[in-house]
Amino acid sequence: MQDKWLRSAVAVFAVTAAAACSSSRPAPITYANSSVSSPIPPLGQHKAARPSIATPLDPASLPYDPSRPPVILADAPISECVPFARKVSGVQIWGDAVTWWGQAEGRYVRSSHPAEGSVFVMRGYNDERRGHVAVVSAILSERLIHVDHANWLSQGETSLNVPVIDVSANNDWSEVRVWHIPGNHWGGRVYTTQGFIHPFRLDGAAGLISG
Questions:
Q1: Which residues does residue 166 pair with via DSSP β-bridges, in sequence order?
Q2: What is the number of structural domains in the chain?
């Protein structure tokens, strides 16, 4: 399915990356006039974390397979990060992204380690009132993951296979940089993070069960 996404046209937005998301816009479900399938995985298809690959960190190297590059979907409906992350991950949390980490406490499994299908919670650059959520789509190494997310460039766009690199001193994913698709380079800003919300309820229910 992912290969179909990558054949979609790429819309380039020459804007600065931002990290503010609310939940007023709907998540993208279908794409009109496109062969791109919905980014919603089938129920029960969340993947467990892959074993870490001990590879040297080289921010200058290309952080993705050139045959499967990060893309901005040209014809995806406008969305914001919260409804997109909720629909793709199955984590049933509402409200602004900045509230997700606190809302997940006692309800979902939280950790400082990524797993495919988990929701990555970031804080706004120099602004604790802003936040962003993205869904981990692949784990490439101990310090490199790919995410799918919406509205990162503040245009309501949907971006897939976006590299995110851990630049924290302790390799704990507390500080990251995000690939800037329009410029094809690492973004210059370092974002602080809160961690990963996994789509498993602490009461034993599946993450896709609302409550």
A1: 176
A2: 1
At 72-103, the pLDDT tens digits run 999 999 999 999 999 999 999 999 999 999 99
Phi, psi at 138, each rounded to 5°: -160, 150
In a domain, 38, yes or no: no
Cβ(135)–Cβ(118) below 8 Å? yes
What pLDDT, in 10s, does the model give residues 20-60?
Answer: 565 555 444 332 333 333 343 433 344 444 444 434 446 56
Domain CATH for 15: 3.90.1720.10
Containing 77, the helix (H) or strand (E) segment is none
Q: Give the end-to-end CA distance of the chain in Å, rounded to a whole number.
A: 30
**Helix or strand (DSSP H, E) at 134:** strand 127-141
d(CA 194, CA 140): 20
Give the largest CA-CA distance in the chain.
Answer: 46
Phi and psi (nearest 5°) for 83? -65, -30
